[in-house]
Amino acid sequence: xxxxxxxxxxxxxxxxxxxxxxxxxxxxxxxxxxxxxxxxxxxxxxxxxxxxxxxxxxxxxxxxxxxxxxxxxxxxxxxxxxxxxxxxxxxxxxxxxxxxxxxxxxxxxxxxxxxxxxxxxxxxxxxxxxxxxxxxxxxxxxxxxxxxxxxxxxxxxxxxxxxxxxxxxxxxxxxxxxxxxxxxxxxxxxxxxxxxxxxxxxxxxxxxxxxxxxxxxxxxxxxxxxxxxxxxxxxxxxxxxxxxxxxxxxxxxxxxxxxxxxxxxxxxxxxxxxxxxxxxxxxxxxxxxxxxxxxxxxxxxxxxxxxxxxxxxxxxxxxxxxxxxxxxxxxxxxxxxxxxxxxxxxxxxxxxxxxxxxxxxxxxxxxxxxxxxxxxxxxxxxxxxxxxxxxxxxxxxxxxxxxxxxxxxxxxxxxxxxxxxxxxxxxxxxxxxxxxxxxxxxxxxxxxxxxxxxxxxxxxxxxxxxxxxxxxxxxxxxxxxxxxxxxxxxxxxxxxxxxxxxxxxxxxxxxxxxxxxxx
Length: 519
Known about the structure:
This protein is an alpha/beta fold. It has a domain at 379-384 and 397-519. 34% of the residues lie in helices and 13% in strands. Helix 1 (10-20) crosses helix 4 (55-66), helix 7 runs parallel beside helix 8 and helix 11 packs across helix 13. It is flat, with a radius of gyration of 27 Å. The model has no long low-confidence stretch (mean pLDDT 92). One of its GO terms (cellular component) is SCF ubiquitin ligase complex.
């Protein structure tokens, strides 16, 4: 049966009790009295019991409280001590304004700070505090009002920064240049390893400066990476002047040679147009690449051959563009034949045809597989127990408009599902619009493979499954902690109530999510 709720550890239980009785334990007063102290700011005179508490314990108490409620200023005043190593002030988790104020005043050794989604905080407030953050290692500014001037301050005051998340912020190339290079031409943030700039106004020019300036960068979330790598390979004094001067940055006195190699581990592109020369440059400059992601482009199948030289490739994600220019037999399968032995993660989307047997033969160590919007699967006549025998996660996404089609018209055949579900290590399963999937087929598969490690199961528009199947899942020996039943026409609201009641009465540690079928 699924996992049951278990008693928390003594440490966790103690922290929970502290959170539930925070006012009398830390202020020696009732909640009403503490509220009055906050109104007249008398609470600031209370030192509390945590002045000499080890930093990791303080962080643990803060995290335990925030799991149940947002951290109020009464919590932050007591918990934000000079020895605090990390703090999450993300919107909804804490009072961001007072948290930032306390951190700036007290924490000179803070290592990890999460300010994500604090869109109401003026960037000038953050800028004034950055001189105190000289020890920051990870800084999350996702969806904040971070501007270019703030990046210049980060570059100046955060020399040991290793991770910076700028997703969805209003930054531009100018800010990235000033993050990496001072106004005097000195390189900054040289320890930065992970940088996220997705969903910003950063262009290929700014990305090229980042790649050229940060020698230890391994994870760069920028979705036009091929063109940026090509610019780095062409780097010269003229290009440097063209990219740096508009940002108000002085050129270095000595010409800066482009790096021979980049440390990037992932190549990601969602550009509609990608030059073959750009791909050549990226592969040449990034030999340590472990992950390649291409989506929405009009690249020909032959471009995939260029990735055959990547000796560390373990993850591949390919999504065809509108032109369906990538062909499985001509492009994907040859690449899998060259690199499949070490491939662990494979995502294929929007292909007209796929040969499952070819994937099984060439990728013996595959751990995670996702297949979406596939027009046709080459038929297989029998199950090979050696194929997909190590899978931990499987996702099969079909067209919801075909969810009610007869079994013989379904894209995914029963034999194909049996082949994909041979692994006894399966933990996560997701099926969308798989009309082939029925109670009977599930029972047959379970007889051969009971899936005792299954922890997450999602059935979306799977109209062949019934409430009886769900009860069988709840009866089976597994480690299920998440069950999502979305728009399955045989599973109604009363069934959801029935499942919820059973999960509660049998003390199952499980998240259940149900959506009605409305198509």
